[in-house]
Amino acid sequence: AINISQPSFSGTDVFGYTSFLAYSTIPNITFYYEFRLKFQLANLHSALQDNLIFFTGQKGQGLNGDDFLELGLRNGRVVYSYNLGSGTATIISKPLDLTLNIHVIHLGRYLQKGWLKVDDQKNKTVTSPGRLVGLNVFSQFYLGGYREYTPELLPKGSRFKNGFQGCIFDVQVRTSMNQEFKSPGTPEGHPNSGRSVGQCKDSPCSLIKCRNGGKCIEGGSTVYCDCLTGWKGAFCTETVSVCEPEHNPPHLCKQGGTCVPLPNGYTCHCPLGTTGTYCEQG
């Protein structure tokens, strides 16, 4: 068990799934909202290319009328987009100052007008097209990634290829200027679900001891022991038998011969019609 207070996200895995946290739908977000959050990048290359920070919206099939709100990183800049049902409004920040360890984002929207402030950059504003003024979203609030295979099921105009890579913390929201900022979730700060999320700066490898020269490998919240030749098992505590497929070098029994371990080496039990030390002869 890992106590997660500052979630770390590992991006998109080889199967196309992202690490994410899903919070309950943010209520009363229709006409006004403000978000504050901080993040720390896992690296200065892939973490900045095309990465989703958060998303909430109607899960549609790419129709222009799908309302959504989302934030992400693209080509080293913060991208903030929303669609109220009559076209997408987007603000793109200046390139992030990569000498900063932690980045701070403050964004909001009132009716059609949205604004974004990143670190010490100037405030940027945008007005959404069309006449609609309300954001109608019913999905959960997704942080760091998306439940389904990203980005195919996200509404058109909000597709980021990868999940976030790094740590996101101090996420707060309010839906009225008279409100206090609160953490998302019901109860406050508690996600409904998630996948492959770790604790920032705290590797689960610190909780696991691989034996016999094995090395702990971490990926998101998944850990395993990479064992040296001759060892196997969750913690590299089991020896690999000379007859097992992972033994190096492999046994030499041919033509369906069965490898049988001996105190010193092995022998081959040959099927009918074969003979020889390794059943190699007909």
Automatic annotation (TrEMBL):
Q: Which InterPro entries match?
A: ConA-like_dom_sf, EGF, EGF-like_Ca-bd_dom, Laminin_G, Neurexin-related_CASP
Disulfide connectivity for this sequence is 227-236, 270-279
Start and end of every EGF-like domain? 201-237, 239-280
Q: Does the keyword tRNA processing apply?
A: no
Q: PROSITE patterns, alphabetically?
A: EGF_1, EGF_2, EGF_3, LAM_G_DOMAIN
Which terms in the GO cellular component ontology are assigned?
Answer: basement membrane; membrane
Is-annotated flag, keyword Disulfide bond? yes
In terms of Pfam families, this protein maps to: EGF, Laminin_G_2
Ranges of residues in domain Laminin G: 10-200
Task: Please give one Gene Ontology molecular function term for this protein.
Answer: calcium ion binding
Q: Which UniProt keywords apply?
A: Disulfide bond, EGF-like domain
Q: What is this protein called?
A: EYS protein
Q: What organism is the protein native to? A: Aptenodytes patagonicus
